[in-house]
Specification:
This protein is mainly α and 158 residues long. The chain is 50% helix and 9% strand. The protein contains 6 helices and 3 strands. Strands 1-2-3 form a 3-stranded parallel β-sheet. Helix 2 links the parallel strand 1 and strand 2. Helix 4 runs antiparallel to helix 6. The chain is extended and about 60 Å long. It starts with a helix and ends in a 12-residue tail after the last helix.
Length: 158
């Protein structure tokens, strides 16, 4: 375990890195963000369980902290309903210009849905379930994510 001196040095280095990042962001003409809704080792989500307001507030706080102002062009997220709704709010309020749904996440949901289709809740849904599709299939999400050629391809690349 590192001692106090080492930890202090590490914190100072991280702070210097943050200042460099802020300076780089100030000089850029546009910025794109990606979100990561990974899970902790315990299985709990870091942000994915956040409310629409919490997610929107977090993104706005980042914009203020890093002085992104009106340069936030696009934000990539997974397809969680909370992220989608938060992005709709941010788009409506002019915080960013475009929401990009992660193609990798959409593909993963499509594969999971095909391998283990959800059980139909009523008789009308059973026809769709036999083909591996449900009324809420991710096919529409995939078309949305790729319709303009902007997709998140692994770890935030556009």
């Amino acid at each position: 375990m590192p001692g106090r001196t080492k930890v202090t040095k590490m914190i100072d280095e991280l702070y210097e890195d943050m200042l460099k990042l802020k300076d780089m962001l100030k000089q850029s003409s546009s910025v794109s963000l990606t979100t990561e809704a990974a899970k902790m080792p315990t299985g709990d989500s870091y942000v994915a369980t956040g409310s629409v307001q919490e997610i929107g507030s977090l993104i706005m706080e980042l914009g203020i902290k890093y002085t992104l102002d009106d340069r936030l062009d696009a934000i990539a997220t997974d397809n969680g309903a909370n992220f989608v709704a938060a992005m709709e709010d941010l788009l409506e309020n002019g915080i960013c210009e475009e929401h990009v749904r992660c193609a990798c996440h959409t593909l993963q949901l499509s594969i999971k849905n095909h391998i283990d289709p959800p059980k139909p809740k009523n008789a009308s849904a059973s026809t769709n379930a036999t083909s591996g599709l449900t009324p809420s299939s991710t096919t529409a999400d995939n078309q949305t994510a790729t319709s303009e050629g902007n997709v998140c391809c692994s770890r935030g690349s556009f």
